[in-house]
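Show me any protein, fold above all:
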Amino acid sequence: MKNPKHWNCVDCGVNTAKGGPTEEFARRKVKRGVAKVWQADKTWEVYEVNPQVWKAARCRSVLCIGCIEQRIGRRLTPADFTDGELNQIVGTKRLSDRKGFRGKREFGFLNPMFG
């Protein structure tokens, strides 16, 4: 998965990953051979869902959990999420609940040079 140009929800405008790497920033770092690990926190709503969920949402960009759920007309469930790296990082309580991470450990780091 590529880093998006920005992390703002395309529907409501909320920044889903304050301080997260943008596509342009990651591209510059890769050219220089520099990789940085980003510290995710509990304000992030960064995730990957299965292709059929994106299709139902009619979007392949950044959406906060509330907006993707509004688009698909239901709450997300753990089965909606991929096994991807993004789904292992810490996020909001709302995101953690949807991923089924209640009380389980999530990682707090994201390497922006994946994929």
Remarks:
- The chain has four helices and two strands.
- The beta strands are 38-39, 109-110.
- Residues 23-32 form the longest helix (10 residues).
